[in-house]
Amino acid sequence: MPQHFALHASAALVGIIAFGVAAGIFVGFTWHALGMTRRQVERLARLPFADRTDLPPRA
Amino acid sequence: MSDRKITIEFNDKIVRWFLVATLIWGAVGMLVGVLVASQLNFWQLNFNTPWLTFSRLRPLHTNAVIFAFVGNMMFAGIYYSTQRLVKARLASDFLSWLHFWGWQLIIVAAAITLPLGFTRGKEYAELIWPINLAVAFIWVVFAVNFFWTLARRREPALYVAIWFYIATIVTVAMLYIVNHLSIPTSLLHSYPVFSGVQDALVQWWYGHNAVAFFLTTPILGIMYYYPPKAAERPVYSYRLSVVHFWSLVFVYIWAGPHHLLNTALPAWLQSLGMTFSLMLWAPSWGGMLNGLLTLRGAWHKLRTDPVLKFFAAGVTFYGMATFEGPLLSIKSVNALGHYTDWIIGHVHGGTLGWNGFMAAGMTYWLLPRLWKKPLHSVPLANLHFWLGLVGILLYVGAMWASGITQGLMLNATTEHGTVLAYPNFLDTLNPIRPLMLMRAIGGALYLTGWFLLAYNFYKTARGAAPVNGTIEVFEEEPGTAPAPANSSLGFLGTFFNAPTLFCILGVGFATAWMLGTELVSTAGLAGALICFVAGFALIRARGRSWSAWYEKLLINALPFTVLTFIAVAAGGAIQIIPTVAVARAENVEDRLQVVYTPLELAGRDIYVREGCYNCHSQMIRTLVPDVLRYGEYSRLGESIYDHPFQWGSKRTGPDLARVGGKYPNIWHLRHMENPRSISVGSNMPNYPWLLTNNTDVAALPAKIKVQRMLGVPFPPYSAAQIFDSVEQQEKEIAKDLRTAGAYVAPEKEIIALTAYLQTLGRSQPVHPKAAAVVPTSVSP
Predict the structure, then answer these.
(1) What pLDDT does residue B543 have?
(2) Chain B contacts of A45, Cβ < 8 Å?
(3) Angle at B10 between CA B8 and CA B15, to 5 degrees
(4) What is the pLDDT of residues B433-448, one digit of tens each?
């Protein structure tokens, strides 16, 4: 391929660490999401409904 | 715990104003869109007027619909839902109004400067540097107002919509700042600090993620709040929404290089961009299905409720666009679709279908609530939906057909792949003209639907007495789960704990295993296995404490925001840091760009000002049809001094990377004066003012000074030497034109532009190691 581009060892190391940290956060939260209890999930899912309705009466 | 009730009055006035601004700017942005679509068919609609010309209006259209239309819609949606989700009024009325009026002033400034040709020459990042500073300032005002509100919230848990809003705020700030790093040469002009491939990479990291974090994540937050409210049922799967969020913010940011496939961009970046784009399928469709399935049990309401119609169709278009995006990111598909109308169709499926329909659905849902009056006309809203839907289908269908037709014709070869089947670019333009007309009609239909919304809006709001929403809460909410004891998370608590460390170490070891050489790879495998086993054992033994950590994190906005930022920033850092840190001189392949003369630089600035990049690329891809049509593929070193890069993203006209020397000077003069006098059937606008305007020579010393600061090896010119050099080259070109039978005064802009166009493709062969040649003498 014509498009060779030097990848410095230090940049690769920074890249691997950054990828590891970011992927770790993603994996960790996914792990947690799948482990949430039904009670936790239902409470969070109902947050948009935890207010009084402010709809006007039907015309 | 107190049982004293208090009433919170939300700041809904600011929501109403942002909604009105959405309506107005949406109409303006789409109107300009219909005009530029029509200009592609009827060049006369450019009116030979600079500020009405396609190449200046197209940036106005894109900036208006992205930042003015979707921006105002996003702010309305975020401010309304956040107050209710966190049970607190917006923290500061002053900041809210500063945010509103600041943003509108920015839009007005953009609407004035872009048609006048003040531009940075980078797509969706055209606004000049003083406006960039204003955008950054107002974004900070928005962020402070938002996070301050979170700090005053009465609901400890952060609903998933808030997560998407947080990701939007931190990521857009990061993208905007990095891609707008510039050094001013005057009050209205600057050069970006990056050039060539570095500028291309940063630009498309920004450009792609403007789609991701300006047009997608805030709307996903809106999707997780408004459709559940409209359908009166909670989101289908909250667990899926968590996975959706983290996978989307982590994966999306890496996909930028798919805008540069088969170009001079290093192959490892192209592969990375393509791979992550394909990975995006999963979270995007997970989120789309979560949104659609939220309507389970409420599908019958779609027959009568325009709000749900808009939401269901909007989410469906999100699914369609996020299927098509990864498809187009496959290199071989991209070879066909890139630079053609297929990309335009893809983008408009997302913007008209996803953004536009979500905006309409949200507006119709908010109208009766914000003005305390029933919607004026439900049938009119239903008509809006059907007009919009037919408009989108016409638009997108036409663009698919047009893009694939032109792509196939441009790539078609005969004689065993050695000769182009359609060597004249215009032969590929004429067959798609009816489709381009159909696109304009589709856009006009969609705009008509928007005007119906405006009428419905006006009739609903007229005579209404808008009242701010309120909520009664206990001073300490007894109905909600109390915050866990000792719920604060410090720096150490956030980052140095078992879940984080095990995840980071595990993924780090796994990466070393995959990328490392023998010993490193074996050690990586061993480390990953140990982490997995130890982590599994620990979670069995101490699962509750792990869970408690996550619970704490979900109610601590700052550590949550920091972790979101890290997850988002990693992709850009890995792609951009090596590309910027690498020695440019060693990565030119075998050609090095020749530094421009002062007149050529002035001509290049005219090229950027006129927005030529909107229709012409300067990048010959590593594809046989490209090479057969335009010449040898473009090398990294051939744009190394270009601040900004002008590789382009669309070929409404042919590529210009090697147009220099292809035609005589007189050809360029005639072509810019009236393209059809040279290329019969061309849809390019006339640029007659280039023959009457004088080149801005006085600005050159400051411009060259900045270019030298940025590392472009201009000789150390004095101002007098610059003016002499310009005069000399102008006279040479004017003399050549006179010989060919045309008289043009040397100081006219067409002379400078011709000088620049004639340099395109000019380079010197060079061995990469010997590339750092810095001339010391003045020899223009």
Answers:
(1) 62
(2) 234-235, 238
(3) 175
(4) 999 999 999 999 999 9
ipTM for the assembly: 0.78
pLDDT of residue B532: 80
What pLDDT is attached to residue A3? 37
User: What is d(CA B22, CA B16) in angstroms, rounded to the nearest whole number?
Assistant: 10
Amino acid (one-letter) located at A8 = H
Residue in chain A nearest B243 by alpha carbon:
A30
- Picking from A15, A42, A47, the nearest residue to B574 by CB comes out as A15
Residue A57 C-alpha, separation from nearest chain B C-alpha, in angstroms: 8
The closest of B116, B121, B117 to B191, measured between CA atoms, is B121
CA distance B343 to B35: 19
- Reported pTM: 0.91
Give the pLDDT of residue A58. Answer: 42
CB contact under 8 A, B578 and A11: yes
The closest of B317, B313, B306, B315 to B364, measured between CA atoms, is B306
Q: Which residue has the tokens 């196939």?
A: B408
For the record, the structure tokens of B594 come out as 């020749």
Q: With CB atoms and an 8 Å threshold, state whether A6 touches B547.
A: no
Q: Which residues of chain B have pLDDT under 50?
A: 1, 477-485, 773-780
Give residue-wise pLDDT tens across range B208-255: 998 899 999 999 999 999 999 999 999 999 989 988 998 999 899 999
Mutation for testing the A interface, residue in B270, B503, B540 having most A CBs under 10 Å: B503
C-alpha pair distances (Å), B100 with each of B114, B372, B577: 21, 23, 35
Instruction: Tell me the backbone φ, ψ of residue B234, rounded to 5 degrees.
Output: -70, 165
Show the tokens assigned to A57. 């009466």
| Residue B119 near residue B53 (C-beta atoms within 8 A) | no
- C-beta atoms of A25 and B500 within 8 A: yes
